[in-house]
Give the backbone structure.
Amino acid sequence: MKKTYGIVAAFDTTPDFYHACEQVRDAGFSQWDAITSFPIHGLDAAMGVRRSNVPRFSLAGGITGFCTGMSLIWWTGASEYPLIVGGKPYFSPMFAFPISYELTILFTAFATIIGMFILNKLPMHYHPVMKAPQFVRASDDRFYIVIEANDPKFNPVQTRALLQQIGGKDIAELEE
Amino acid sequence: MSTPAASSASASTAALANKFLVTGLIGLALTALGLFVATPQALALSYLVGVAYWTTVGIGMLLLIQIHYIVDAGWSTVIRRQFEHGLSAFKWLFVLFLPLLICAWVKPGLIWPWMDLAHEIHGGHTVGADPLYLKKSGFLNLRMFTGMTLGFFGIWIWLSARLRKASFTQDTDGNTKWTFMSRKTAAFGIPLTALALSFAAIYWMKSLEYHWFSTMYGVWFFANCMRAGMAFGVMITYWLYVRGDYKGIFNTNQLHCLTALAFAFVVFWAYVTFSQYFLIWNANVPEETFWYNIREHGDWVYVGMLLLFGHFFVPFLSWLRYRNKAELKPALIVSIWIAVIILVDLCYNILPALKDAHDEPLPFLSMNLFWVLTSVVGVGGICVWAYLKSFPTAKIIPIRDPRIVESLTHHEATAP
């Protein structure tokens, strides 16, 4: 028999779904997700989701870019091939600044995109939640909550009861 | 009908306004007493810093309101009203600028050396025999200066009056035509304000050393204006939030939008200020480099370093963190710091025009700094008084603005 991935429940209206998310949050689950076809303001707070970690990648990328720019100008102009241009010193942070600034932006952008892919585990071509009944409606007029089996508070019977109690419909157990 | 809480709040506003008026008058009186102690030139330039500083704040608020209208912004509607109150300071700033204008007519050359053709410049020539002056004399003369200065204040006061009237009247009649009128005002007002502030920076500050030129100067002043407007915006927000007026109105996302915009202007300021320095450093032309050479004398080099780190790195690195943008306390601390460092930036641009007998700039840390502070307190007291006098004349937010609901529900509403 295949491993259980989790339990999925469907909701019909945004308020029902929003309050259901609050209750799943308050029940103390950590490994679960909410699936909607459009952004719902305040859902992050209703789910108890903390701020994204992507900015940490961005900062690391920015610092790397700045240092790359500075060392590139220093290495090419003062170390590898010392050359006097316009009576200026071999190296000065002054003229290294524009290139460092550009590379800061470039590397920050790369790190942000890459960080987002890593944290979202992208690219992902298959996800067990796709097997939920009538799941195509998640991209149309229905909202889904899926609680994963690897959550420490997960219990096949109690979790199903919770989802039922908060108004979930078409509750189904998902295979891995 | 006013509730007891509302009337006590308006009474405290009136009391606060009086306090600021008294403080302002004391500051101005102290500055005036300086006539007996300091040299007239040092005092006049210190006073110029004071007037220029608060004009910077006013222009920033004027621009923020107009940008709000021209891009049809939603989130900033709740904050806009406070900027509109701030605009009431312009007429007083004009009155406070008059002593400088009178001084320019009574004693030409005391503040702006090019106004006196007999003024002796470095090398023994006079201004009147200086080809670098003669080429610019069509622009740099007393009549142009006077007319332009009257024009700047005329533009700012007129635009302020239009924007204030439209917004305040909409509170009572709820007519959307006022929003459209303000959008039109902004459409021609933004270029007018931009030209006025650029020429003001050139006439009032840059022409103190009239040999120098920099195409970045107006942009540098614009960056400071925007930063000053937003820094004071955060301070006003904090005051209103702590006092309770903004409870249930102001939320994290409006604050985050305001500070994020201010954060963008941290980078913008650094970009133009660095560009100005870098291009002059790279081209290495004596007519331009002398301006920075003066500012490497004495303690001015440390002031320059303070600007580099204090005006850019400190606010930049603090505001990289989301928490420092979205929470009122840290946002306030960074904003106060920015407001202070803008004053230092103006000092750095104006005060080195004061020279000693050897034609070297007088130091930053001197009695002149005291006169700068009395002027800033004096002019500032009057400006804040004008704001607080205007404050009770309109509702705390523009309640019948078509975008007010959008602003109040701006994303998820949680208290800051």
